[in-house]
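Below is how a single chain appears once it has passed through the pipeline. First comes the sequence as given, then the structure the pipeline wrote out for it. We keep one example in the README because the format questions we get most often are answered faster by looking than by reading.
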Amino acid sequence: MLRGEKVILRPFKRKDLDTLEAWSHDPHFVGEFNNFGLHGYGNMERDFDEDGMVSNRLGRLAAATLDGTLIGRLSYHTTSHGPGEGNRVYMIGIGLHPDHQGKGYGVEAQRLLTDYLFATFPIIRVETITDITNRPEQRALEKAGFTREAVLRKAQWRNGDWHDQVLYSKLRGE
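Resulting structure:
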């Protein structure tokens, strides 16, 4: 468990899966920036049974308030900028329930996850992307210590159109 001043990050529990599954099919939770089409039910339970949804390559963590209220989820996965283990970096993502956005939870959660990845793995860089029009997430990333690096033109297909993405990174020691 990773504990901050406002939020706790922890592995999902089996009892969380119904909520997680419901969120993944709820347009209010998914929102404009994470709508990548319909998908079947049962994926969460299958992934949970495989590895508890936490591994060195791919992970999904629950975000909860200090009193234990589930407010969202974070993810991380490996990507690489060249051959060899030394070029491995982690890409992170976040989804907070709209009722819990704008309260600083996302800033702290992304900071906690990034600190965890640096403390656990021999990496130099953590990355994330967000839609160029997602200003609240861009502000949250900057507050969490990420640096805006580039605009990836027409990098994401979503809702019937190509969307520009902004690449952010945080380096070890920043």
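The two ends are 23 Å apart (CA to CA).

See the next section for the split statistics.
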